[in-house]
From TrEMBL:
One of the GO biological process terms: mitochondrial respiratory chain complex III assembly
GO MF terms held by the record: protein folding chaperone
Main location class: mitochondrion
Domain Complex 1 LYR protein: 4-59
Gene, per the UniProt record: LYRM7
Species name: Lepidothrix coronata (blue-crowned manakin)
Record-given protein name: Complex III assembly factor LYRM7
InterPro entries on file: Complex1_LYR_dom, Complex1_LYR_LYRM7, MZM1/LYRM7
Keyword Chaperone tagged: yes
Amino acid sequence: MPIKKVLKLFKLLHRTRQEVFKNDTRALEAARQKINEEFRNNKDETSEEKINELLKIASDVEVILRTSVIQAVHTDSDKIVLIPRKDLLQDNTPYLDKPSKKQES
């Protein structure tokens, strides 16, 4: 198994962690420790099949972090402000009760 693939994914997870948990030192540190721990625990793995399985899991985790995690900040005892990243925001399509029929050309 090429070590380059493992290192590339390791670095990608850390870059994603820095982006997703920006300005949240506790989450940044917890994610850093978890990423390092998981890679350290499996550093001596020699089975190519197991390594590919671990890489798939790590890749899936990166995608989930990048596409599903939104930061939130308590502003009052009963208020939370969400801080979505720009890459999570999508154009909103307005809801219509009765969609207009497309004109055929």
